[in-house]
Each structure stands twice: as structure tokens, then as C-alpha cells.
Design goal:
Among the domains are: 109 residues, no CATH class; 80 residues, Helix Hairpins, CATH 1.10.287; 63 residues, no CATH class; 159 residues, no CATH class; 43 residues. α29 packs antiparallel against α30. By secondary structure, it is mainly alpha-helical. Helices cover 75% and strands 0% of the residues. The protein is elongated and about 125 Å long.
Length: 669
């Protein structure tokens, strides 16, 4: 029996390390057949054998506790033999299952290496981290361990391919686990960096807003009611990165509350002593005789130049407008009043009226109103000139059909919505207009409202800080999901293919069928880009890195994926923007009221008042008459000098030119 047990243990060990299990079982069965238990097996002997068998097989063997004779011993021996064979078979099946499982795992790893899945993941992560560098140009997120893990996986794969031993198999599996760990580590770092940068940008923008407000509103700062609140807000902003998003949101709301309350109680603007101190610094010069004489001369010369400039602008307006001559003359003087109200020049008002007239607003009332709105928009938008303001309003009005029938809709329908986001998000009116100018038509065709378009682009630009690229990216996405090529702008009919691809890439436990491009099963109505990206943002973190990369490329192509990723990861900013715009009515007018209290606005008002005086003093018709008369005199001189020649005309020419000089023609221009 001891010999048999030794053989059994050897076969069991061999079974665990080899796959030729059937041959082992057959050989063991032959040994059992040869082993004839002829001696009487007493309970004690049998107990020892059973313990050894249990140790060898790794399982319990049930033997009846009865007196055993020689014949029964043979029967029990036969039963034990069968138990041994069955045990080895079960052990064999378990070994085969584990072997197959490891083989499948290795094959999957090898396939992923072969098709570039791991390489794509690593390259994508390295590319993301390269956009963030420190002062020395080094990446702020290290990918050294990630690259090292990828190299080790590649080496392990090559070793296993050349020699598929158990050791190389284990090394390959261990390398794959290490790479997966490093991918998760870097991915988490990238997400943290995106969140940190978005918050830093928001804090910096907010700090600038508070500083600007405090510098322009000494009354608010000095007041007992609001001063301590403003100082506390500013002190907390100085904590910078230590502020949580929730704390920053609370500070912004407190600042808005202070502005609104100060405006309501008349506490905006500079204090009396601030104004007096600024005025006294140059008062002595302003009252000197030298200043007054020079200012009078400059005013006359400037007045003549202004009238010439205004006349040129009026000629351009006459080409495009339906106004009568009388209406044009009236508008010529009304433009000066509008300019003083809006903080721009009279010439700009007339030029803007010409621009709006070309777009169909050719009546005196419509052209004047639209010129007023575009000028107002420029005044409340730092970094934006009147021409840019006009282009932005035209683009939005035409794309989203706002204000085309009723120009007054432009004020709160467009300007207030843009202004409230420029004041409360990490962007500006000028950036928003730039993004809309590039994307508004395509976004409207993709069923987005103006508010949804602004919200999506705000979420993206807060992180990317590149308004031009954001505008182009959303133009690309909105065209792709409707089956148009973003470069040729032609229909390419791949909507079904794209829809299926997006659905496959967005399958999760909560969206087992994936996310569709369409609102219902008829597939006749597209979801808006806002709705589609909102649904994706809800399940984005549930997707694998590979599916995320594939989804971004399907939506935005190879070049714009980063911008759409920024939008999805920062979608709470888009939702916040939607809420802000829902309550934005009156924002543009309130902003203008603040601008009107600035020195720059008051200085412009003084300057345009001077232009108004020039309009009254230097009548265009009178100036034309003088110029025509002087032209006639010059024609006579031209005729005489052509006949007399150089020397014969010296006396005559000298006298005539002296007279003309005395008239002051040199001062006309």
C-alpha cells in the first residue's frame, strides 16, 4: 500500500504540472488492477491509508466505521481506487480550466498589443500631459512610470512570443497589470489638473472683476454698509487654490449681491474726495491762459476735421439707406446725441448705421436703433470695438432669428445673455462673440438655441482658453452629427454609421442600448448638441479610456477631441450658464449704467459735445461753398501760371498765395 501511495502522489504532482492527464489516470488504473488487497485490513490500517489518500487528493474520503474482513477489504480497496481516479479527474479539470483562463488572458493582452490599443492609450495620455508645463518647460504631470510600464509590457510580450513558457506568461500578465495601474494613475492626474486649471482661471477672472469694481466705485468701498463685505470677499479670493468650487461660487454670489445693493442705494461711483483729488492734480494747468488759447485753436482745427469725417460717413450712409435728404440731415445731428449716450464717436454711429442699412435696417429709426445697440454692446464689452460688436450681433441675429422683426429683442435676447456670462464665468463678451461668429449658423442647424450654444462654448473655453478653436470645434461637431463634412461642408450621408458607432461606445449599465443621435426611434429629429453632450457627460466616467477616446474622435474628428472632452468634463459650467442666462434680463442696461459713471465715458461725452458744437458752427453746406469758391480761384491761378511760365508769374503767384495763406486754408485740414 505504501508503494501505491508513493505512485499516487507522484501522479498527482505530475498532473498539476502537465496536461497529459488521461495517460496518468490510465496508468494509475492499471496499477490499481494489479494491486490486490489480500490481507485483512483492520480499521486502524484503513484509517492510516485513508488519511494518506486524503492528503494526496486534497479532499475527504468517507469510509464506513465497521469491522472489515478480507473480502470487504478488497471491495473497499476497489472503491478507494475509483475515488482516487475520480479525484485526479476533478483535479485535472480544474487545472485545465485555470490553464485555459490564463491562455485566454495572455491572448487578449497580445491582441491588444498587436492592434495598438495600449500604445494609443499611452500616447493619448502623454499628449494630454504635454500641454501643461512649468516655468522650465517640463511637464507638470510625470509620465515616466507610465512609459516605463509600457516598455516592460512590450518586452514581456516579445519574450513570451519567442518562448511561451510559464515564467514568461506570468511576467506578461504582471506587466499588463502594472501598465493598467499607471494608466489609471496618470488619468486621475489629468482629471485633477483640468479641475485645478478651470478653478485657477475662474479665481483669476473673479479677482480682476473685484479689483476693477473697487477701483471704480470708491463710494461702495468706503460705505459702512458694503465696504467690509467687499474687503472680506477680496481677502478670501487671495487664498487662491485653497478655495473650493463651492466657496468660490458663494463669493461670486456675495459680490453680485453687493453690486446690486450698491446700485439700488446709489452707492456706485467714486467718492467726492477721489474726484476732487483727481481734478486738483491738473486744475492749475486747465485754468492757465496758455491752455485756454491752445485749446481754442485745437478745437477749431479739430472741429473742421470732425465735420469732414462726418460728411464722409454720411455720404456712405446715403448710398445704402432709404432715408430722404431731410431724414439724413436730421440723423446727422441725432447721431451726436446717440454717441454721447453710448460712449462712442459720432462718426462711429453714422458708420454703424451704414452697416446696418446694408443688412436691411435702412429706415432712420431702425438704423439709428441698431447703431445704438451695437455701440452699447461695444461699450460694455472690454476689448471689443464697434465693428466687432456689429459683426457679432449680425451673426447671432441671422443664425438664431432674434431681433430681425423687432430690433428691441436684441437688447435682452442677445446682449444681456452674453454679458451675464461674460461677468460670471471665466470668459469675456469678446471671447463669446468670437466663438459665436464661428459656430452660430452650424449650431442653430443642429437644433441648438443661442443659450445652449453659449453654455457649451463657455464650458469649453474655461478650460482650453482658446476661443477661436472652441468656436471651430463646435462647428465641426454640429456638422458631423448631421452627416456633413466639416471641411467641404457637403452632405456625406454617414449619419447611420456614426449613430451606431456612438451608441456602441456609450453602452453602460444605465444606458444598455447606448446614446442615440435622435430624439425618437423614427430617426427624423436630431437631438441638440447640448442635449447629446449632456447625456454623454452623465455616463462619461463609466466608459473605458478606449471607449472615451473612440467617442471623442467619432464626435469631433482627430483634431477637436480635446475641446469636446473639456466640455464634457466641465458640463456643470454649461448648466450654470443656462441658469444665469434664464435670469439675465436687464444685464446689458445695468452694465451700461456702470460704464456711464466712468471717467472714460464722461471724457468721451465731453469730446462728442465738442463735435456737436462743431456741427452747429461749421455747417457742411457753408464749408462746401467756401471750398468751391477757393477751388474757382485756384483754377484762375492755374490758368494764368500756365501761360506766364515760372519767371513771369513770380510776382502774381507770390501775392495770390500770400493772400490765400492769410485766409487760413492751411488750417482747414
Amino acid at each position: 500500500m505504501d508503494e501505491f501511495l508513493i505512485l499516487l502522489q507522484a501522479k498527482l504532482d505530475e498532473t498539476k504540472s502537465k496536461e497529459n492527464v488521461n495517460a496518468n489516470i490510465k496508468e494509475l488504473q492499471n496499477q490499481l488492477d494489479k494491486l490486490k488487497i489480500q490481507v485483512e485490513i483492520d480499521p486502524k490500517s484503513l484509517s492510516n491509508i485513508v488519511k494518506q489518500l486524503e492528503s494526496a487528493l486534497g479532499q475527504k474520503i468517507k469510509i464506513p466505521n465497521i469491522a472489515i474482513d478480507s473480502k470487504m477489504g478488497q471491495q473497499i480497496g476497489s472503491n478507494i481506487g475509483q475515488n482516487i481516479v475520480d479525484g485526479i479527474s476533478r483535479s485535472s479539470n480544474k487545472v485545465n480550466s485555470e490553464v485555459q483562463k490564463l491562455a485566454n488572458q495572455v491572448n487578449k493582452i497580445q491582441l491588444s498589443i498587436g492592434d495598438g490599443t495600449y500604445e494609443s492609450k499611452v500616447d493619448a495620455l502623454v499628449a494630454k500631459t504635454n500641454q501643461w508645463t512649468d516655468a522650465n518647460g517640463n511637464a507638470r504631470i510625470s509620465t515616466n512610470e507610465l512609459s516605463k510600464a509600457f516598455d516592460q509590457l512590450t518586452t514581456a510580450s516579445n519574450n513570451y512570443a519567442n518562448s511561451p513558457t510559464e515564467a514568461h506568461q506570468k511576467a506578461l500578465i504582471a506587466s499588463e497589470k502594472e501598465l493598467d495601474k499607471q494608466i489609471k494613475t496618470v488619468t486621475n492626474s489629468v482629471r485633477s489638473m483640468n479641475t485645478e486649471l478651470a478653478k485657477d482661471s475662474a479665481i483669476s477672472s473673479f479677482r480682476n472683476q473685484v479689483v476693477d469694481f473697487m477701483s471704480k466705485n470708491g463710494k461702495t468701498v468706503k460705505s459702512f454698509q458694503f465696504g467690509s463685505e467687499l474687503k472680506d470677499i477680496f481677502a478670501k479670493i487671495q487664498q487662491g487654490a485653497k478655495l473650493s468650487n463651492q466657496e468660490l461660487s458663494i463669493l461670486k454670489q456675495r459680490f453680485i449681491d453687493v453690486q446690486n445693493a450698491a446700485r439700488a442705494t446709489g452707492k456706485l461711483g467714486k467718492t467726492f474726495f477721489q474726484t476732487l483729488r483727481e481734478g486738483m492734480s491738473s486744475f492749475s494747468y486747465w485754468t492757465s491762459s496758455t491752455f485756454l488759447v491752445m485749446k481754442a485753436i485745437q478745437s477749431i482745427k479739430g472741429g473742421i476735421r470732425s465735420i469732414v469725417e462726418l460728411d464722409t460717413a454720411l455720404v456712405d450712409l446715403r448710398k445704402t439707406t432709404s432715408m430722404t435728404y431731410g431724414e439724413l440731415e436730421k440723423f446727422y445731428y441725432e447721431a451726436n446725441k446717440v454717441a454721447k449716450q453710448m460712449g462712442v464717436t459720432t462718426a462711429e454711429i453714422i458708420n454703424q448705421a451704414s452697416a446696418w442699412s446694408r443688412l436691411g435696417y435702412s429706415s432712420a429709426e431702425a438704423a439709428s436703433k441698431m447703431a445704438k445697440y451695437s455701440s452699447m454692446f461695444a461699450s460694455i464689452s472690454p476689448g471689443m470695438n464697434v465693428d466687432t460688436a456689429t459683426d457679432g450681433l449680425v451673426s447671432v441675429m441671422k443664425a438664431f432669428d432674434i431681433g430681425n422683426d423687432n430690433p428691441d429683442e436684441v437688447l435682452d435676447g442677445i446682449m444681456s445673455k452674453i454679458n451675464i456670462i461674460g461677468n460670471t464665468a471665466a470668459t469675456s463678451n469678446a471671447e463669446i462673440v468670437n466663438m459665436l461668429t464661428r459656430s452660430s449658423s452650424a449650431m442653430k442647424e443642429a437644433n441648438n438655441t443661442l443659450e445652449e450654444t453659449i453654455a457649451l462654448e463657455t464650458a469649453a473655453v474655461e478650460i482650453t482658453r482658446d476661443d477661436a478653436s472652441v468656436g471651430n470645434a463646435f462647428k465641426t461637431v454640429s456638422m458631423r452629427i448631421r452627416g456633413y463634412d466639416e471641411e467641404t461642408e457637403e452632405f456625406i450621408g454617414n449619419v447611420e454609421e456614426l449613430s451606431g458607432e456612438i451608441a456602441n461606445l456609450t453602452k453602460t449599465a444605465s444606458t444598455p442600448g447606448g446614446i442615440s443621435l435622435f430624439t425618437d426611434d423614427t430617426k427624423t429629429e436630431y437631438k441638440s448638441t447640448y442635449q447629446l453632450l449632456k447625456e454623454i457627460s452623465d455616463i462619461y466616467d463609466q466608459l473605458s479610456d478606449k471607449d472615451q477616446a473612440g467617442l471623442l474622435e467619432a464626435l469631433a474628428g482627430k483634431r477637436q477631441g480635446q475641446i469636446i472632452a473639456a466640455t464634457i468634463n466641465n458640463f456643470e459650467a454649461a448648466e450654470k450658464a443656462m441658469n444665469s442666462m434664464a435670469n439675465s434680463a436687464g444685464s446689458a442696461e445695468k452694465e451700461m449704467s456702470v460704464i456711464m459713471d466712468s471717467i472714460e465715458y464722461k471724457t468721451n461725452r465731453l469730446k462728442e459735445t465738442t463735435v456737436g458744437v462743431a456741427q452747429n458752427l461749421f455747417k457742411r453746406d457753408d464749408m462746401k461753398t467756401v471750398v468751391d469758391g477757393l477751388t474757382s480761384v485756384m483754377n484762375v491761378i492755374d490758368s494764368l501760371t500756365s501761360k506766364l511760365g515760372l519767371f513771369g508769374s513770380i510776382g502774381l503767384g507770390a501775392g495770390l498765395f500770400t493772400s490765400i495763406k492769410n485766409v487760413g486754408m492751411a488750417e482747414l485740414y
